[in-house]
């Protein structure tokens, strides 16, 4: 497996007006856009062929992962090697391709836009809103599970009962491996009392190429959108020769949801506090600020 698909065509309405002209995927986590962390995760797992599914007003994503010759020359003239290397880093990460999703018709439709690029190969899907702590471990494990069992693999994280309606949730059966389950059913954003479990789908998938045929026949669901969850639900019923089964990897680490305002701010603070070049000044100020809020 060499290919990763990163859907990045969303409108980012929760971050308006900041996202009126700036893609939500380009909002910075300290000094690096969120989407770069996602591409770095794909590359760390061995996926160097990345397809971005973009839309209107997303040109800055392409510019970010392209060379910036004038800026590089200016930094070179100043002998600013550190910043020069940071600017070059994004353009040298991976072989990145782009295709536009003409209209926002859901995650399933965005993945379907990758059909010509992925062809008959299994591929990973990484949502740009999610940053995974220990980024390489989860995706590598999912690839291992796919190589062992075939079919598709989704990442699952246990959430509180009041949160299940925010996610697609899975009905699961145990296997002989502590972190691997068989998916028997998937429900998109169920009411808490109708959820099959508290194991929610997070933004990492390994998809069998048969998913494209299923998506072409999947009718629009909630909100008039084509849901990837619905296609995976169909694949979960199938035999290996028809694109099944679907397994889940139980993720017990930390996930940063940068599509949520409060979680985005938490992510920025946490990442900044983990930086040696920032923590020495930021942490004392943060402690003082919190103390003032409590007084």
From TrEMBL:
Lineage: Bacteria, Bacillati, Actinomycetota, Actinomycetes, Streptosporangiales
Gene3D superfamilies: Spore Coat Polysaccharide Biosynthesis Protein SpsA, Chain A
Coiled-coil ranges per UniProt: none
Species this chain originates from: Nocardiopsis gilva YIM 90087
Enzyme Commission code: 2.7.7.9
Family to which the UniProt record says this protein belongs: Belongs to the UDPGP type 2 family.
GO biological process: UDP-alpha-D-glucose metabolic process
Molecular-function GO terms, alphabetical: UTP:glucose-1-phosphate uridylyltransferase activity
Domain Nucleotidyl transferase: residue ranges: 3-266
Keywords, alphabetical: Nucleotidyltransferase, Transferase
Name of the coding gene: galU
Protein name listed in UniProt: UTP--glucose-1-phosphate uridylyltransferase
EC main group: transferase
Annotated catalysed reactions: alpha-D-glucose 1-phosphate + UTP + H(+) = UDP-alpha-D-glucose + diphosphate
């Amino acid at each position: 497996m060499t290919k990763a698909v990163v859907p990045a065509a969303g409108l980012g309405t929760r971050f308006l007006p900041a996202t009126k002209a700036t893609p939500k995927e380009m909002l910075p986590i300290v000094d690096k856009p969120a989407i770069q962390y996602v591409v770095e995760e794909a590359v760390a797992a061995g996926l160097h062929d990345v397809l971005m599914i973009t839309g209107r007003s997303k040109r800055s994503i392409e510019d970010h992962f392209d060379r910036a010759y004038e800026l590089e020359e200016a930094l070179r003239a100043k002998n600013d090697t550190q910043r020069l290397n940071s600017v070059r880093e994004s353009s040298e990460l991976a072989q990145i391709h782009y295709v536009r999703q003409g209209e926002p018709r859901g995650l399933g439709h965005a993945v379907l836009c990758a059909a010509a690029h992925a062809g008959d190969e299994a591929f990973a899907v990484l949502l740009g809103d999610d940053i995974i702590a220990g980024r390489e471990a989860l995706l590598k494990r999912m690839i291992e599970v796919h190589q062992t069992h075939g079919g598709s693999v989704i990442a699952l994280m246990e959430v509180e009962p009041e949160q299940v309606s925010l996610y697609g949730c899975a009905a699961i059966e145990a296997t002989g491996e502590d972190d691997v389950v068989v998916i028997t059913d998937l429900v998109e954003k169920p009411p808490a009392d109708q959820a099959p479990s508290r194991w929610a789908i997070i933004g990492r998938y390994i998809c069998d190429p048969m998913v494209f045929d299923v998506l072409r026949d999947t009718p629009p669901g909630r909100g008039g959108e084509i849901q990837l969850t619905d296609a995976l639900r169909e694949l979960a019923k199938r035999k290996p020769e028809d694109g099944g089964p679907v397994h889940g990897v139980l993720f017990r680490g930390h996930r940063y949801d940068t599509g949520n305002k409060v979680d985005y701010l938490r992510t920025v603070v946490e990442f900044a506090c983990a930086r040696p070049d920032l923590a020495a000044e930021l942490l004392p100020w943060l402690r003082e600020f919190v103390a003032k809020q409590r007084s």
